[in-house]
Amino acid sequence: DVKVTQSSRYLVKRTGEKVFLECVQDMDHENMFWYRQDPGLGLRLIYFSYDVKMKEKGDIPEGYSVSREKKERFSLILESASTNQTSMYLCASSLNRGQYEKLFFGSGTQLSVL
Amino acid sequence: AQSVTQLDSQVPVFEEAPVELRCNYSSSVSVYLFWYVQYPNQGLQLLLKYLSGSTLVKGINGFEAEFNKSQTSFHLRKPSVHISDTAEYFCAVRGYSTLTFGKGTMLLVSP
Hints:
The complex is a heterodimer. Chain A is mainly β. Helices cover about 0% and strands about 50% of the residues of chain A. Chain A is built from no helices and 11 strands. In chain A, strands 2, 4, 5, 6, 9, 10 and 11 form a 7-stranded mixed sheet that branches. A 4-stranded antiparallel sheet of chain A has the order 1-3-8-7, with no helix packed on it. By secondary structure, chain B is mainly beta. Chain B is built from no helices and 12 strands. Chain B is globular and about 40 Å long. Chains A and B meet through strand 5 of A and strand 6 and strand 11 of B.
């Protein structure tokens, strides 16, 4: 089975801190995605990547950046965390562009910004 | 542009009763539709998908969905639910390069 691992289940940070959320997949998938999940708003796409060193903006990229230096790892960066970035963050991967609809998700990181 | 509307934020139901979770979509490209399920404290997993062919799609755990082009709907159904089906269910439509998810429907199954 594909495994998508997010480094932290819960994270508490202070306003203004730089925050790194890490995601690793073990099945050589080309595509990786970062979503945030908020009650009543569902999942919203922040950034995605089709290949190493490539990135594309999703629907809500403001306040975030990403890094993909290796195929298996996709990092989400909050340059200066704010309270409105308190949320559940979900990482996902898929095999390649033709298969991108089958997403495999990590268990999520619940980030609280105080 | 693509969008998904899940008409109910919560659906309470008793165990062994039938259930329908409603989803309507709009899409400017070929229509590919999905249902994902999220159990408590877990990530999402694919329940079923419609890409082409038969409009009735069967998925895991006894769920099925019917694609209705004229009504732009893709409702999820199960004839008899179990307590273990308590979860949040997300409908999604494929866009040009990614999936667009609905806001989710929480299915609450009680004894």
